[in-house]
Amino acid sequence: MLKVRKVLASFLVLLFLVAWVNPSTKTVEAHINSESPIEAISPIKRPLPTTRFHESAQSQAVLPPKDPQNVVYLTFDDGPDPNWTIQILDILERYQAGATFYMIGYNVVSHPEVVREVASRGQTLSVHGFNHFDLSGVGFAYFYNEIHDTETVILDALGEDPALTQQFGRCMRPPYGKKSELLATNAEAMGYEVSMWNIDTKDWSGLSPDEILTHFRSALEPNKVILMHDGGLERSNTVKALELILHELLMQGFTALPYCTQEGQAIDTSD
């Protein structure tokens, strides 16, 4: 009898252990197989930054008012060029600056679309000779062909749109800046004014952008005509220097304007 009781007790203990293990297993399985969504963890809320970005020093600077007497005239020789001229136009537009582009005839023939772009951006354009030859000692016939042919291809590129053709001015810049009484006489006979300059940035000489700016600063005065280049050679330093120059003009309260317009030259630099 005692032996039966021991067997029965062992059996009851075994049943208890099975009952204790099974519920937890079923609970885990029920949780895994449940289709009820798991509660999402709420994101940690952080305060938004009070400053979204830092404005540039230029935008924060208090600029001096523009003085109507503080005017300079930007000019570019040797274009048009589909790379450099377009980059220069973008910078001029960004600073709301005006300029005159003295164009070489054979570059106009190659890039008439750039000629139209110059005019459509509100900049003025004129003549720098067809082949960039020295015209200071040539007779009238040769001079006439160089200037007239350049004028013709410029106007052909502009088409018949008055909004574009009005951007052409009857001014000629002597190639290499070489002038003479004969050249002045020939230009006058064709109804052209001779466009010279009185600040040469020397962007053609291999100076760095900072060196070009330093050279420009040393000569800056009101009513100066500034010489730069948008064609002929690699002009990346000119493009970079132009940005520096226009920022300098902005900080000093200067306005940059075209030199030659349909009405003629802004000031006389022929002497």
Runs in which pLDDT lies below 50 for 5 or more consecutive residues are 11-64
CATH superfamily label: Glycoside hydrolase/deacetylase
Count of β-strands: 10
**What does the largest sheet look like?**
6 strands, parallel
Class per helix and strand makeup = alpha/beta
CATH fold call: TIM Barrel
| Adjacency order of strands in the biggest sheet | 5-4-3-2-1-8
Question: What order do the helices and strands come in, and which of them pair?
Answer:
Elements (H helix, E strand, L loop, with lengths): L1 H32 L23 H4 L10 E9 L4 H12 L3 E5 L1 H6 L1 H9 L3 E4 L12 H19 L3 H4 L2 E5 L8 H9 L3 E2 L4 E2 L8 H11 L5 E5 L6 H16 L3 E4 L1 E2 L2 E2 L6
Parallel strand pairs: 1-2, 1-8, 2-3, 3-4, 4-5, 6-7
Antiparallel strand pairs: 9-10
Helix pairs in contact: 3-10, 5-6, 9-10
Describe it.
With 271 residues, this protein is an alpha/beta fold. It has one domain: TIM Barrel, CATH 3.20.20. Helix content is 45%, strand content 15%. It has helices at residues 2-33, 57-60, 84-95, 105-110, 112-120, 140-158, 162-165, 181-189, 209-219, 236-251, and strands spanning 71-79, 99-103, 124-127, 168-172, 193-194, 199-200, 225-229, 255-258, 260-261, 264-265. The strands form three sheets. A six-stranded parallel sheet has the order 5-4-3-2-1-8. Strands 6-7 form a two-stranded parallel ribbon. Helix 8 links the parallel strand 4 and strand 5. Residues 11-64 have low confidence and may be disordered.
